[in-house]
Amino acid sequence: MKILVTGASGQLGSTFKSLAKKGYAKELDFVFKSATDLDITDIDAVQEELTSSDYAYCINCAGFTNVDSAEDQNDLAYLLNVTGVRNLAINCNRSKTILIHISTDFVFDGFSNVPYSEEAVARPINFYGDTKYKGERAVINNVSRYFILRTSWLYSEFGQNFMKTMLKLAPKKDTISVVYDQIGTPTYALDLANTILLIIKENSKDYGTYNYSNEGVASWYDFAKAIFEGYTIDIELKPILSTAYEMSAERPKFSVLDKSKIKDTFGLIIPHWKDSLSVALRAYSQING
Ligand SMILES: NC(=O)C1=CN([C@@H]2O[C@H](COP(=O)(O)OP(=O)(O)OC[C@H]3O[C@@H](n4cnc5c(N)ncnc54)[C@H](OP(=O)(O)O)[C@@H]3O)[C@@H](O)[C@H]2O)C=CC1
Ligand SMILES: Cc1cn([C@H]2C[C@H](O)[C@@H](COP(=O)(O)OP(=O)(O)O[C@H]3O[C@@H](C)C(=O)[C@@H](O)[C@H]3O)O2)c(=O)[nH]c1=O
Description:
Rossmann fold, 18% strand, dTDP_dehydrorham_reduct
C-alpha cells in the first residue's frame, strides 16, 4: 500500500521517516516528499504527484507552524495552511486517496474550562489558528474520505519544538522564565505517528475529525520543569504570566483536548505526557549525546 507523506522534512514528517527506517510498518510503502520535492501550494505539481502513482493515503505533514510569524506573514501562512491543503484535498478526491491531515488545539479560543470535544465551537484567536481552521474546512469540503487529527504542543527529537528549545537554551542561561497561564497537553510526535499508522493498518472507514494528544494536563512551565528534571539539568526556572513574555500572537489560555472519540473508535490507550517525555528525552540524548 503506497503512502504519500508531504512536508516530510519537518518534525512529524521526520518521525514517519524514522519509523520507516527502523522497519516499522514494512507493509506500507512510504514516498516521502519534502517542500522542495513537492510544493503543496503548486496545484499542478500536486495533481501530477497524486495521479502519477496509486496512493492509498496522503499524510499531510506540511504546514506553516511559526505562530508568531503567521501574524505578519499572513499571505504565506494562508497559502500553505489553506490553499495548499485545498490543493491536496481536491486531488486526493480525484485520485481516490484518503487524506490524513493534521490540525491544532489553536483552533479554539481557550475560554473553556472543560476539555474541547470535536464538536466544540472553533473560534481561533490568532492568524495561525484561523488558517488551520480554514484548512480543516478545505479538507471537509473537498475530499470525501479524510481523517483530520487535531493535536497539541507537538514535540520530539526532530525539527523545532519547545523541548529542544529548552534543552538548547539551558547551557546558555542561568535562569529561564516560562509561562504558567497557558494550559494544554504536550504530545510526543511518535505517539501521534503511531496512531496514524494504526488508523491506516486497520483500513478504518470511520472518517472524520478526531482529537489526539497525550494524556494529562500541563502548563508550559510544568512541561519545562519536567524537561529539566528528566534531563537532570539544574537551572533556575521562573513561572511567569504570558503578559510578561513578548509574543506577537495571542495563545489560548486553555486548550486541553477531549480524546474520548478517538479512544472509543480505535480502542486506544494513550500514554501520559510525562511517560512519553521520558521516551523522547532518551531519543534526544541518543542523537545529541
Ligand atoms: N508543532 C506543533 O506544536 C503542532 C503542529 N501541528 C500541525 O502538525 C503539522 C506538522 O507539524 P510539524 O511537523 O511540527 O511542523 P514543521 O514546521 O516541523 O514541518 C512543516 C513542514 O512543512 C514544510 N513545508 C513548508 N512549505 C511547504 C510547501 N509549500 N509544500 C510542502 N511542504 C512545505 C516545511 O518545509 P521546510 O522545512 O523546507 O520549511 C516543513 O518541513 C502541521 O500541520 C501543524 O500545523 C498541530 C499541533 C501542534
Ligand atoms: C522559548 C520560551 C517560550 N515561552 C512560551 C511562549 C509560548 O507561550 C509557549 C510555547 O512556546 P512556543 O513558541 O514553543 O510554542 P507555540 O508556538 O505556542 O506552540 C504552538 O505551536 C503550534 C504550531 C501549535 O499548533 C500549538 O499546538 C502549539 O504547539 O512558551 C516562554 O514562556 N519562555 C521561553 O523561554
